[in-house]
Design goal:
Bound molecules: zinc ion
Number of helices: 3
Strand order of the largest sheet: 1-2-3-6-7
Low-confidence stretches: none
Helix content: 10-25%
Mean pLDDT: 93
Structural class: alpha+beta
Radius of gyration: 16 Å
Number of strands: 9
Shape: globular
Amino acid sequence: MARREVIRMGHPTLRQEASEVDLKMIQTKEFKDLIIDLYDTMKAEGGIGIAAPQINVPLKVTLIELPENSERYGDLSGTPLMIIINPKLTFLTDDKQGFWEGCLSVPGLRGYVERPKKIRVDYYNENGEEKSLEVEEFLATVFQHELDHLFGKLYIDRITDTTKICYNEEFSQLVASKKINADDVLDD
Ligand code: ZN
């Protein structure tokens, strides 16, 4: 299988709602190949999540995996691969948290996004089984970022304070000068 090209902001596929996956399709070779390609692409690009629309496949599928032994992701490092199909999102609190998000489809930039802290995601896994997961804190933001891709949204749309958008190089300088806490960063 193969790494595929990640499409970037401005490509129309990133701005349309993706289609639900026909559950009968899940066991097909074509679908399994799609998952492998998504995985290979996510790894090659150094992301912790990827959504099918990002490789120009408008289906409601997203992968999330946090690498092991990652200082950045602390206790969450080693979160195993999750394959999320046809998800539905429910907010479990109005309390918000902010992280500096980055996106493979918006290369070179970061922006500070506030999102609800605790959510429930109802979805199907790669075996076509119904699953429900409650997630909070950092992982809740990761899920919301990825699920947005399935509905034609980018993190850029969620930024409420546009003074908190910057290029990676300038961001690194802000971290180095301790104006920004390096723990509040995610890449997907
Ligand atoms: Zn993204």
